[in-house]
Structures are given as C-alpha cells and as structure tokens.
Amino acid sequence: MSGTLILVRHGQSEWNLKNLFTGWRDPGLTEKGHEEAKEAGRKLKARGFRPDIAFTSVLSRAQVTNDHILRELGQEDLETIRDQALNERDYGDLSGLNKDDARQKWGEEQVHIWRRSYDVPPPGGESLKDTGARVWPYFLHDVLPHVLRGETVLVAAHGNSLRALVMALDGMSGEEIVKTEIGTGVPIVYRLNADSTVASKEILED
C-alpha cells in the first residue's frame, strides 16, 4: 500500500447558483459553498485524515475551499501549491453566459455537445480532453510522486479538472466520464498501490 489521494471539488460558487458557465472566471463561493467546504474538512477530520501537502488551482473558489478544509483539520499552515494546470475547463466564449441564454443563441443540441462531449471544445475554449491534456502531466510530475512516497495529498480543484483525474484513475472512457458527476464539497478518497494503481476508492457523502 502506498499513499492517499483526496480530491475535493470546490463548494458551490456564485455562478453555479446563477447557472452561468464559469470556466476560468473567478466568482466567489456562496454561503452554501463555504459551508460545503467546511463540511468536507469536518468529514476528513472525523476519519482521521491529515494531509502532508495540498494542491489547488489559481482560482479563488478552489483556494478558499482548500483553506476551509485545512482550517477544519487544524492545518492552516500546511504547504499548499497553486497551479493553473488544475484550473477548471476553459469555456471560452461561453464563460459568463447563462446556460439557458447560450441554448437560445446556439441551440439546445450544440450547447449539449459542448457541455457533454469529451473532445468537442466550445468556441475559444477547451474540451474535457484538452483539460485532461494539461491536468494529467501535472498530476504525474508534481502530485503523484508525493502519493507514491506514502504521503496523504489533498487536491482542491474543479468539476472538470477532477473529472480528468477520475477518468485516468478509474480507467474510464471519454463517454463514461462525461456522464460522471463530481459533487461540490464531497471528498473522494483514493488509496493507491506502490505502482500507482488504485487499491480503493471511497466517496465521503452524507
């Protein structure tokens, strides 16, 4: 048995609540989002998890979620590395638009393809495949070595950057991963073998 990898999607953001495409834009968390992040920390504390290092994106909603978790764990001073590689998928021209308005502009079917296909990017943005192309190398080079040394690693990031990681860890296809929902503020705990294969996976839901 090697180390532990904890993935947490940020708590609900103001734009999640307003049904807007967020991407690389930087809205804050809602009141509910702050509470979801704190609850993630409480769940991890109840299970006795103590991260050795944390990784997050350069977007504030993920950073604040990370801060809440570490505060609940009494580890506010834990080393935290922030990198753009863990950012949410870039929605390009859709960023900031209401999803219903986007459907009116481009049509229901086209918006559905952009949101739920694996390799079709929206105008000026990234597909989930593109997102994976920056997340996976960063994970392999910067995050995974800590886990393989037997450490407990916390990654607080976004729905699609975490989808890319879950896809690789669970050996899922592009079709499977686009149907997979990653809940806000819900810790996903992987225990990895020394060869980086998954020994166990647990989702800490209510």
UniProtKB/TrEMBL annotation:
Q: Does the keyword Ribosomal protein apply?
A: no
Q: Does the keyword Metal-binding apply?
A: no
What are its GO biological-process terms?
A: gluconeogenesis; glycolytic process
Which residue numbers mark the site Transition state stabilizer? Answer: H158
Which positions are catalytic residues?
Answer: H10, E88
Q: Which InterPro entries match?
A: His_Pase_superF_clade-1, His_PPase_superfam, PG/BPGM_mutase_AS, Phosphogly_mut1
Residues binding substrate are 9-16, 22-23, 61, 88-91, 99, 115-116, 159-160
Question: What are the EC numbers?
Answer: 5.4.2.11
Q: Name one GO molecular function term.
A: phosphoglycerate mutase activity
Q: Indicate the enzyme's highest-level EC class.
A: isomerase
Q: Which PROSITE patterns match?
A: PG_MUTASE (PS00175)
Provide the alphabetized UniProt keywords: Gluconeogenesis, Glycolysis, Isomerase
The pathway entry for this protein reads as: Carbohydrate degradation; glycolysis; pyruvate from D-glyceraldehyde 3-phosphate: step 3/5
Matching entries from Gene3D superfamilies are given as: Phosphoglycerate mutase-like
Coiled-coil ranges per the record? none
Which reaction(s) does its UniProt entry say it catalyses? (2R)-2-phosphoglycerate = (2R)-3-phosphoglycerate
Q: How does it assemble?
A: Homodimer.
Q: Which family does it belong to?
A: Belongs to the phosphoglycerate mutase family. BPG-dependent PGAM subfamily.
Biological function: Catalyzes the interconversion of 2-phosphoglycerate and 3-phosphoglycerate.
Protein name as catalogued: 2,3-bisphosphoglycerate-dependent phosphoglycerate mutase
